[in-house]
Every structure is written in structure tokens, then in C-alpha cells.
Amino acid sequence: LVAIILGIVLGIAIPNGAGYFEFMGTLFLSLLKVLILPIIIFSLFLAIARISDVNSLKELGTKTIGYYALTTSIAVLTGLILANIFIFQNNYDSIEPTSTKSGINFIERIFSTNIFNSLANGEILHIVVFTILFSLAFIGLEEKKKRTILEISDSLYEVFMKLIGWILKLAPLGILSLVWSTISKFDSTTFSSVSSFFIATALAAFIHSFISLPLIGTFLGRFNVLDYFWKVKQALIVSFATASSAATLPVSTKVVEESGVSRKVSRFVLPIGATLNMDGSALYQALLAMLFVSLSGIEISMLDQLLLFVFIVLSSAGTAGIPSGGIIMMT
User: Fold this and answer.
1) 79, 71, 69, 73: which is closest to 283 by C-alpha?
2) Which of 35, 132, 199, 307 is the most exposed place for a label (fewest CB within 10 A)?
3) pLDDT tens digits, one per residue of 179-221
């Protein structure tokens, strides 16, 4: 937290100095990113492979997907409502719309034709789906054949968690560098021209983070939200500084297990969540799409907004968990 505040101050006061220390943020992100794929593969594999009762796996999977669909829908709805309140109060000149075609193929985004190529390119959704299928097949093996593989996988997972502990000691320096660099590149003239969009985005993020999700935690999860936020603060700080759900996954896994969440749940839920549960991207995509509609002078009906809602809920699941991953999906 001190690093974030100091980064903001330095970004405003000494923007030109950010370049000299940017390497620290790059190094911190690189160290986190190198652990993303091993954590996803081993945590998901161990979570599924250790489940002997398939019905309990179905129950956990159904609850996980249901919860992610709920939070993503709330995020998109929040974005659309605030877009109608803030963005459409300005009347922009109509411009000539350009013809576009979708570059999104959902089948290709979900299933890999070459898993080694997907591993090399960091295609996380491909790896998640393949690991789930591999783990389900593994369940059907004889117990004596499974034992050795499970022991080796568990040991490797512990090694990666120990590495995360070491990397987190560099977090203050890495976060300071990332925030300083981000703030130093901020363009105030751009902000003033689309200020209503920035206000709506900030307000939507605040509502989703501090109202919608805490209400779900209180009434659906039945736990003390403030206490839980404090326990997982390290993951929240890293996610804020890196703007990457994928880069934060190793930290999230570590802190939730230390805060009392069972390994069975964390190893299954978190890797899938880092891939499918893109609430921030969904919220932002809704606002950005509505901004484009507004700037183009197009009148959009409630039915059009409903179709936009459905499309963003589905497409956000394929958004890459990297900084500005939502921008790529917006094309």
C-alpha cells in the first residue's frame, strides 16, 4: 500500500524518472508470469485428481460456473446502467460507421489443436480445458497407478508455492515501479475529453468491488467480508498494481489457502476463475462499447443493449488475463 501511494506521488512529481526504475516492475511481473502455467496445471490437476466422488466434482463445478456467471452478469449490468446515466448525456456528432467483422471464434478459443503450442504461447483457456479433460481421465485409473503421480505433482506444487513466497518479497519494489510508470504516462488532455467515461468506469468498479461482491459474500457466502478482504489483501494489492488476473493467480492461491479456504476448493476454483471470471473486463467492455455507440451517434434500443449484455457475458470468458486484455477483445 505504501508502494502504491509512493508510486502515485512520484508519478505526478517526477514522471521522467519512471523509466530508470521500470525494469523492477518488468522483473516482478516476469517472475510472477513464469509461475502462472505451472500453478494452473498442478492446482487444477490435483483438485480434480484427488476427488474420488464424481458427484462432488459436479456439485463444485456447477456452483463455480454458476457463481462466475452471476458476478459477470452483475458487472456487465452495472456497466450498462452507468453508461446510460453518464455517457449518453452528451450529444456527439454522428460519424460514418465502419464495417467490421468479428475475429472471435469461440471453439478455437476453448479447444487447442496443439497443446504444446498453447503452452508456448500462454493460451490459458486452452490449458485449463485440456487439464480438466486430462484430470477427468486420470480419475479412472487404478489407485496404485495414481499414487506416484499424485505424490510427485503435490511435491512440485509445494515447490512452486515456495517460489511465490520468495517473489512476493520483491512485491513492494515491483509495485512501486509499476504504479510510477503507469501514472507518469497518464494524459490529462485525453481524460478531459472523455471525462464522463472515466467517471462512469471508476464508479462502476467501485460499486462492483465494494457493494455487489461484498453483498454476495455476506448473504450468499455468509462470511465477514472485511475480515476476508484483510486476509487476502496481498492478492488485492498485487492485482491492482499488475492489472492482470493471470499474474495475480499464484498470489491468490497462496493467500486464500493461508486464510482457511480448503485446497480442494482453491485449486479448482481459482485457476478457472482467472480464466473465465473476468468481471473487470466485462464491466469495462460494456462501458467502452456504449462509449463507441455514443461517439458514433447511433441510437441504441433496450433490445440492442440486451444483446450486448449477452455477448459481453460470453465473450469476457475468453478475455486474456493480462494487462489491457479487454482492449484486445473489444476489436
Assistant:
1) 79
2) 307
3) 899 888 877 776 666 788 888 999 999 999 999 999 999 999 9
On the CB side of 184, how many CA atoms lie within 13 Å of its CA?
20
Give the dihedral of Cα atoms 67, 69, 70, 71; nearest 10 deg: 90
DSSP symbols for 283-324:
HHHHHHHHHHHHHTT----HHHHHHHHHHHHHHGGGS-SSTT
The Cα 192–Cα 17 span in angstroms is 25
At 89, the pLDDT band (50, 70, 90 cuts) reads low
Predicted confidence (pLDDT) at residue 94 exceeds the cutoff of 60:
no
In residues, how long is the chain? 331
* Separation in Å, CA 123 to CA 27, 198, 244: 21, 30, 15
Q: Which helix (H) or strand (E) holds 45?
A: helix 36-49
- Annotate 125-143 with DSSP letters as a single string: HHHHHHHHHHHHHHHTS-H
Percent of the chain with pLDDT over 70: 87
Among 253, 327, 241, which residue's Cα sits nearest to residue 29? 241
Whole-angstrom distance between the N-terminal and C-terminal Cα of the chain? Answer: 34
